[in-house]
Amino acid sequence: MDPLLLARLQFATTTSIHFLFVVVTLGLVTLLVGLQTAGHLTGKPVYERLTRFWGQLYVINYVLGIATGIVMEFQFGLNWSGLSRYVGNVFGAPLAIETLVAFFLESTFLGMWIFGWHRLRRGVHLALLWGVALTAYASAFWIMVANAWLQNPVGYEVRDGVAHLTDFGALLTNPTFGMAFGHVVSAGLVTGGLLMAAVSAWHLLRRTPDFALFRTSLRIGLVTAALAVTALQGFGFAQFGPVGQVQPTKFGGGPARDATVADWTARFGPGDWDPPVLSSVGLGFMILIGFALGCVWLLLPLLWRDWIIRLRFPLWLVLLGLPLPFVAVLLGWIAREVGRQPWVAYGLLPTAQAVSPVSPGLMLTSLIGFSLLLGTLAVTNWTLMARHAARGALDPALGRPPAPDTDPDHQPVFA
Prior knowledge:
Blueprint: H1 3-42, H2 45-78, H3 81-115, H4 122-151, E1 156-159, E2 162-165, H5 168-172, H6 178-205, H7 211-238, H8 240-246, H9 254-268, H10 277-293, H11 306-309, H12 313-320, H13 323-338, E3 343-345, E4 349-350, H14 351-354, H15 360-391
Antiparallel strand pairs: 1-2, 3-4
Helix pairs in contact: 1-2, 1-4, 1-6, 1-13, 1-15, 2-3, 2-15, 3-4, 4-6, 6-7, 6-12, 7-10, 10-13
């Protein structure tokens, strides 16, 4: 078996699974900030109940998502030593910043928010959640900076056979970065909004006692998804401009593509420099799903009339539409990453030169092991989220006030 193919399959599997956690995290944390901020400003108990309920689902997804991210990081040293050695000085800089942001700041803010219920001032507790959200966005920001550099290497020079960073600002102004970052953030908001709307629709279909509560979250989810899907489509189509210019073999063609292929042939020798057809297939189906998700605007009448909710059919549409954003983000990842082939760093480092000199047997073993581990984490995540979502918002464990001390003889340890 080909070690290169096995390494690519392993990275595709683990990154795809991890990306599903990421979009849920970005979407839910934004909605949580809105809910808790609304509760802080209005003092209405409904927003605190919704914050506790959705915060519980967010924490489950975050914890298991961190585990998938740690597993995924091992692959750079295990399977892609050529990448680390040749471009690590450039590619590693934004990844290091992301690690500090995600694993230290974001986790610290989240831990203090989880255990700060009824212990911290309401304003301080809200500020912690804002910190969680901002660091989550910062984490996505630096990951996309790193990915954009692989799509279009800028701000570097090669010395002694190794790429060195010469212009940090060029990483932030990379033409393949800005619109792609907006696209990922919008995808997270669409996913989070539809997840909130779908869970709410399920409870409304079951006629749970909390009709008013889940009607509120249904409306919030649908409005979020509707607004975000418009931005999603805009950022998506906007990428064809800069990407077509700097990656002519990806979505471009004509003279620019021919000139680029001729340059690569002169530098690296003859080869097949066109990306696999799979990237175009993924792009096509992603666009179709994007247009289908745009139909969420047709569900907005659910915001104003309760009798429409009681028809049940619109609620089933919301529930059945939940898988669409997850499928779309995977197809988008295929279009972006497979479309870069046969390069790890576009026009700079061929994928075949980036893979580690590992035996096929060891590569196959790691593929099976990593896939089973991340698959188990994904199944565990969705099982726990479904279980807690099904329990409803009557009394979520997150944010539950401490039980009063009913023992009159109890004395504090440090009295």
